[in-house]
Backbone:
């Protein structure tokens, strides 16, 4: 597993991370047994993956709890990122005076005395520049040793620029994939400031795993796509099949496209079983050919940018 520097924390992280939204999540996914979830985390560590992304609201706190149990005796070998803003009970509160309590509850669930980073979980735009004291609280927690770094999770270039230009954050989680390349415009600016970039939604909510087509039907959280959007997405998939071959699955290629950007620190696909884990990790075994990267960038610029595809 290749590694990259995690911002200014002094730590290295696996360039393929572990998105833990699904752990303990019985609302949006078919339930995964707790023992299976813990075993999957252990297997990830054994295979060289050391970066884990979670949040208080994932599985109503169960994601953090399961990670905590799995990492209890292996904490030194893991890098953990969690979030603030979406509570375990499903409510949302971005008030700065709630950060300490949220972080301390996360520490309890994670069975650790520190986390490597805490990020504001898609906060309102007016919070991003720090004028309400959010980053001051984070600095205090950092001084106390409860967090090593902090930052934000955002989805757009204006949000990225607002944070990059007005704050001293160390971590930024952004949405970026073959079908959503807008945020790449601000990657270099973030890199120049030493900000670690975590890429979320790398498989475009499953579409870039290659398992969906125009006939696919969806339930739960993925029921949001209209028939028109499903048709658009399926047509785009046909156009990018050139990135696959007998040795390269769509998932592997999609992750390699993201890792072709030096500014990216780690990418966090979700994983529900050993087969998916192995496939994700295999993306780190090779790089995407430069001509493929360029063709995908051109496809975005000419045919995808400006389209309404949802997420």
Residues:
């Amino acid at each position: 597993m290749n590694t990259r520097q995690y911002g200014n924390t002094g730590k290295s992280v696996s360039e393929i991370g572990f998105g833990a939204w699904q752990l303990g999540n019985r609302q949006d996914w078919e339930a995964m047994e707790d023992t299976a979830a813990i075993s999957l985390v252990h297997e990830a560590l054994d295979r060289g993956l050391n970066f884990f992304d979670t949040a208080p609201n994932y599985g109503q706190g169960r994601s953090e709890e399961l990670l905590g149990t799995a990492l209890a005796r292996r904490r030194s070998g893991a890098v953990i990122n969690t979030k603030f803003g979406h509570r375990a009970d499903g409510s949302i509160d971005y008030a700065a005076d709630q950060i300490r309590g949220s972080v301390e509850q996360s520490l309890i669930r994670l069975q650790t005395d520190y986390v490597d980073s805490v990020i504001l979980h898609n906060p309102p735009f007016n919070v991003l520049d720090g004028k309400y004291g959010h980053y001051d609280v984070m600095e205090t927690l950092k001084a106390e040793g409860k967090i090593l770094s902090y930052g934000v999770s955002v989805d757009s270039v204006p949000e990225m620029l607002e944070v990059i230009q007005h704050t001293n954050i160390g971590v930024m989680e952004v949405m970026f994939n073959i079908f959503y390349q807008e945020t790449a415009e601000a990657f270099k600016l973030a890199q120049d400031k030493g900000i670690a970039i975590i890429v979320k939604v790398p498989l475009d909510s499953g579409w870039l795993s290659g398992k969906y087509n125009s006939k696919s039907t969806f339930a739960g959280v993925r029921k949001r796509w209209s028939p028109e959007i499903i048709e658009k997405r399926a047509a785009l998939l046909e156009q990018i099949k050139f990135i696959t071959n007998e040795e390269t699955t769509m998932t592997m290629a999609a992750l390699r496209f993201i890792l072709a950007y030096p500014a990216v620190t780690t990418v966090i696909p979700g994983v529900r079983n050993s087969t998916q884990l192995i496939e994700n990790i295999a993306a780190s075994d090779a790089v995407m050919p430069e001509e493929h990267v360029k063709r995908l960038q051109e496809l975005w610029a000419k045919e995808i940018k400006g389209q309404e595809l949802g997420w």
Observations:
- The longest helix spans residues 290-304.
- The chain has a mean pLDDT of 92.
- The first strand starts at residue 3 and ends at 5.
